[in-house]
Amino acid sequence: MSTFSPTLFAGKRFAVFGLGRNGLPVVRTLAACGASVQAWDDGEAARHALATHIAASLHGAGDIALWPFDTLDGFDALILSPGIAHYLPAPHPIALMAQAAGVPVLSDAELLYQAVRLSSSKARFAGITGTNGKSTTTALLAHILSGSGVPVAAGGNLGPAALSLPLLPDHGVYVLEMSSYMLERLTTLRFDTACLLNLTPDHLDRHGDMAGYTRAKCEIFARQTAQDQAVIGMDDALCTALAATLAKGPARCETISGSNPACSYYGQDGAIWHDGVAVAQPGPALPGTHNAQNAAAALAMAHFLGVADAQAAQGVLSFPGLPHRQQRVAQCAGVTFIDDSKATNADAAARALGCYDRLVWIAGGMAKAGGIATLAPYFGRIVHTYLIGRDAALLAATLEEHGVAYTVAETLENAVPAAYQQASKTGVPVVLLSPACASFDQFSGFEARGARFAQLAQEVCAQYTDETGA
């Protein structure tokens, strides 16, 4: 691994709007590669962070101007923070400015691809998207590749911003988690292997409807050739329909499933199978059929990238998992606390609920379209539900309709101790935080929500130890 040339983007002029986790590294890298960069953020803290960087880099910060935009004439591209709309539900004024000037709005993943190819590296690109499971699959594939001695850099929607990743040699692999927001801002990036895990309603305000959302997700397969691989999940109706189109090429299409043996890679009997042969056994960090599908995807992509099946199987077994994805954070008196805070919609929560026969459930926050109505098939597993956040009343109405016992606890501080008492009293082995809702009503993100849950669970267990001496 090495850094990009300090003259790689010399003579280029870029506009960067939004200086958060994505934007600030973009400014730094573009300037370090010789580009002229003008950047802005509406938030004072974000502007201060860039100003601090400029002040600390008097010799090598490149040409960086921290200044609001009045025109984008003369710029080569606008790199817009993924969370800022350039079309729906209403374009941000900076996006309208770009449109008026004929300046493309790009993802930093697109600029990474351009930088790699301008550097004459033949490193391959693996792209992973889907409504759920993409972070786990991205991390798992990177884990498999790294364990097999392949130079690998992982990032994008997960972890480091794409343009902050290093330059890899010809035999290296970039593993990028791609959100729909990133995918709709690509122009030349071609994934050697691309995976669409699943499609369920999400981000419909940004894409207009499911058709728009599907179009954005399918950009993962754009520009592929006969030398490439397309991997598609078969556990939801939309992806199953898309598989018929992908099967026509140009890329070779591999189908994956958490349980369907008609697919090329699938989960069954606690193992992952390929064309009728068991090829890997997921470790404890990959419970449930949804993670069997994630593992199937990673194995299919690793095989295409030249990893020996035995090495890939070892990677699946040894994978440590990701925070806030069914992560065990505390245990006492026969009760295990599971942090699945990443489950920000009902479909993601269904994947966790399906892993446990009896549980106490903590849910709530800012509900997505449809609420939790689709989770009714799992309600029989729930002994009691503790509801938190803004839309607790909405979720309570659904639970009431189905006869599920619940308490509106309002906050995690109330819910976690009460859930433990309920689980302990009724002999339930699991307290599961799988909110099925966004977190922004009470937390800065799902990570903060999960961290607070873990802290409270550990405090409950510490109190139990103090009281019992166990």
Chart the SSEs and their pairings.
Blueprint: E1 13-17, H1 23-32, E2 36-40, H2 44-56, E3 63-66, E4 77-80, H3 93-101, E5 105-106, H4 108-118, E6 124-129, H5 134-147, E7 152-156, E8 173-177, H6 180-183, E9 193-196, H7 204-207, H8 210-218, E10 229-233, H9 237-246, E11 252-257, E12 265-268, E13 271-274, E14 277-280, H10 288-304, H11 309-318, E15 327-332, E16 335-339, H12 346-353, E17 359-364, E18 366-367, E19 382-388, H13 392-401, E20 406-410, H14 412-426, E21 430-433, E22 437-438, H15 446-468
Parallel strand pairs: 1-2, 1-4, 2-3, 4-5, 6-8, 6-9, 7-8, 9-10, 10-11, 11-12, 16-21, 17-19, 17-21, 19-20
Antiparallel strand pairs: 12-13, 13-14, 15-16, 18-22
Helix pairs in contact: 5-10, 5-11, 10-11, 14-15
Corresponding CATH superfamily of the largest domain: Mur-like, catalytic domain
Give the overall form.
globular
Question: Which CATH first-tier class of the largest domain would you pick?
Answer: Alpha Beta
Major beta-sheet overview: 9 strands, mixed
Q: Could you tell me the strand content as a percent range? A: 15-25%
Main structural class: alpha/beta
How far apart are the first and last residues' alpha carbons, in Å? Answer: 50 Å
Average pLDDT metric: 95
| CATH fold name of the largest domain | UDP-N-acetylmuramoyl-L-alanine:D-glutamate ligase
CATH architecture of the largest domain: 3-Layer(aba) Sandwich
- Low-confidence residue ranges: none
Helix amount, in percent? 25-40%
Rg is 23 Å
Tally of DSSP helical segments: 15
**How are the strands of the biggest sheet laid out side by side?**
7-8-6-9-10-11-12-13-14
Q: Please count the beta strands (DSSP E, at least 2 residues each).
A: 22
Taken together, the total number of domains comes to 3
